[in-house]
Write a structure and sequence with these properties.
The chain is α/β, with parallel strands linked by helices and about 300 residues long. It is about 25% helix and about 15% strand. The longest helix has 16 residues, at about 250-265. About 45% of the residues are buried. The structure holds threonylcarbamoyladenylate and magnesium ion (MG). The site of magnesium ion has 4 residues, from loops.
Length: about 300
């Protein structure tokens, strides 16, 4: 199916991806159309190994160090595109850089090995909505537009990969906090700077993103009329949904999208979310919650 420019739902250790042949502009165009994604948002090329990544992008010493430590795993590196890259311009949104990742999920790795080329795979959700952490979420969101979803079980991390850019003459930058905590990355990469001003800061140009139907109210200390509560930690009311009773941010990340989906399905107007500390995976969780709570704009494209 992938060789035929069709789309396949693919499990990864972070969230489910919607995969297409990254070398085929026709397949990539279908991907953008299925997601309803603004065209300026470039895609991640998933590859089977560090060697395959080195054919797509120029990995300097900093990039190789991070790749060797964290691949296969939930780290995406943005580097200059290599002249040998098979990933087409459309998948890179015409940029001179490329986003690369070797996923850790055994089904994703097997698929990549069997396919033998890069797969563009954005999270398998309509643009702006919650990312899927179960095969059923993908099938529900896309219906007939996606003919096949490989069911690899619920995603282990439950939140997207961390994205680090390593460009020539530039400091290492954390473009998107994700499934690897900043502290862990910085132990190998040194301090990570914020995205450069005016750059493609993943996926932050759209103020509202990763959003459920319900509104979100953050740092809630009480539940108001019309609200359901998303708790965190041992102090949350016992009957509320709780991202992690023990206050563990790794567990909370794994539960985040599923619990938001479940609370959304209650039909409540607003999901009130208790405060979550910024340490560990809390940085990524709070990033997603802020975007989900942002004012909703009409989709630009
Ligand atoms: O965990 C993940 O990364 C998941 C799974 C499926 O692998 N994928 C994912 O893809 O989250 P997506 O397309 O939803 O998000 C990729 C982000 C985009 O927001 C895009 O802005 C950024 O990566 N990106 C891609 N290429 C880039 C580039 N050349 N420069 C800066 N950002 C880039
Ligand atoms: Mg996404």
């Amino acid at each position: 199916m992938l060789r035929d420019a069709r789309l396949v739902g693919m499990p990864t250790e972070t969230v489910y991806g919607l995969a297409a042949d990254a070398a085929d502009p026709h397949a990539v165009a279908r991907l953008y159309a299925a997601k309803g994604r603004p065209r300026f948002n470039p895609l991640i090329s998933h590859v089977a190994s560090l060697e395959a990544a080195a054919a797509e992008g120029e990995l300097d010493e900093r990039a190789s160090t991070l790749a060797k430590r964290f691949w296969p795993g939930p780290l995406t590196l943005v580097v200059p595109a290599a002249t040998t890259a098979r990933t087409c311009d459309l998948a890179r949104a015409g940029l001179a850089t490329i986003a690369l990742r070797v996923p850790r999920h055994p089904v994703a790795l097997e698929l990549l090995q069997a396919f033998g080329g890069p797969l563009a795979a954005p999270s398998a959700n309509p643009s702006g909505r919650l990312s899927p952490t179960r095969a059923d979420d993908v099938a529900t969101a896309f219906g007939d537009a996606v003919e096949l979803v490989l069911d690899g079980g619920p995603c282990e991390a439950g939140i997207e990969s961390s994205i680090v850019s390593l460009l020539r003459g530039e400091p290492a930058r954390l473009l998107r906090p994700g499934a690897i905590a900043r502290e862990q990355l910085e132990a190998f990469a040194g301090p990570l700077e914020a995205p450069a001003k005016g750059s493609i800061s993943a996926p932050g140009q759209l103020s509202s993103h990763y959003a459920p139907e319900a509104r979100l109210r953050l740092n809630a200390s009480e539940v108001r009329g019309g609200e359901v509560l998303l708790g965190f930690g041992p102090d949350a009311p016992g009957d509320a949904a709780n991202l992690s009773h023990s206050g563990d941010t790794v567990e909370a990340a794994a539960n985040l999208y599923r619990m938001l989906r479940e609370l959304d399905a209650t039909g409540a107007d607003t999901i009130a979310v208790m405060p979550i500390p910024d340490s560990g995976l809390g940085e990524a969780i709070n990033d997603r919650l802020r975007r989900a709570a942002a004012p909703r704009e009409p989709d630009p494209g």
